[in-house]
């Protein structure tokens, strides 16, 4: 893969963790184990996924991107897999950031439009409470998102100002 410039996306961690976390919701449904014992394979495979990523990070020139194989219940939890890659798999925090931004944009053929903060590119950014290079769990603490030049903040509605007698 490295020799051919192929992008590698080892994204099964969040998927497996979601199955384990929410196994009561998956138990007995089509395509999932019928008993709790059937979920034991996910507990076995998850460390194997970590080992795979640890080995992959040692391959010179391998383009490891951050993607998703999110299922119902996993949406909005990608920060957890991001943290796992650094904490459990030994991925360098800066490499993890690059994998989710400029390298992912390259993999999608969109590097001329997004993935970096540069003139002429779409400037979708997030601000974090903390330095993810020192504490990767800072990716859980998003202060705001800027998408298309508009800043979005996750604040309680009661804290927003009232305009014209109407509170959002």
How do you describe this structure in short?
The chain is of the alpha+beta class and 168 residues long.
Task: Describe the overall structure.
This protein has 168 residues and is of the alpha+beta class. Helices cover 33% and strands 11% of the residues. It has six helices and five strands; from the N terminus they run βαααβαααβββ. The strands form two sheets. It has a three-stranded antiparallel β-sheet with strand order 3-4-5, with no helix packed on it. Strands 1-2 form a two-stranded parallel sheet. It is globular and about 50 Å long. The model has no long low-confidence stretch (mean pLDDT 85).
| Strand segment tally | 5
Q: Ends: how far apart? A: 50 Å
Rg estimate, integer Å: 19 Å
Overall helicity: 25-40%
Low-confidence stretches: none
> Strand count, sense and closure of the main sheet?
3 strands, antiparallel
**Mean pLDDT reading:** 85
Shape: globular
**Strand residues, percent:** 5-15%
- Going by helix content, strand content and strand pairing, the class is alpha+beta
Strand order of the largest sheet: 3-4-5
Oligomeric state as shown = single chain
Strand and helix order: EHHHEHHHEEE
Q: How many helix segments? A: 6
How is the topology of this model organized?
Elements lengths: L6 E2 L3 H10 L1 H4 L13 H17 L6 E2 L13 H10 L5 H8 L1 H6 L17 E4 L13 E6 L2 E4 L15
Parallel strand pairs: 1-2
Antiparallel strand pairs: 3-4, 4-5
Helix pairs in contact: 1-3
